[in-house]
Amino acid sequence: MLKKLMFLSAFLLILIVLAGCQDNQAPITGPDTDVTGDASTLLKGGHNSAAVYTLSNSAAGNEVILFTRNGQGYLSPAGSYSTGGLGTGSGLGSQGAVVLSGKFLFAVNAGSDEVSVLGIHGNHLTLTDKVSSGGTKPISLTVHRNL
Asked: What is the value of pTM for the model shown?
């Protein structure tokens, strides 16, 4: 039940943010993308150009929540994927908790002091690795090439 509530809360937050956009603004797209189709469009790096990723940050088990975005910018829930770590159960106050780099998604696990790496395969994610953050309560991360 808590998992469903967290998923719904994240979905509603995204909808509220999108509702605040002016009608004459174009949908937000990633760098070097032109989202005119469905969620099957992939960027050169391998991740989905029509996908939106966020974290549940659940203390019972952190998850990456995936939404697909259609050509008009509307979001649809498309699943959730375990990070193998724990969230804090509250907001992180950070914009860098999820980072895409090539065919990988990096996510913080603030409750278990870890960083998870998930492989991106179209509309599916696979947990590839999980490492200690080297500190306490990581709320954001940065990826630079292979570092």
From this structure: 0.68
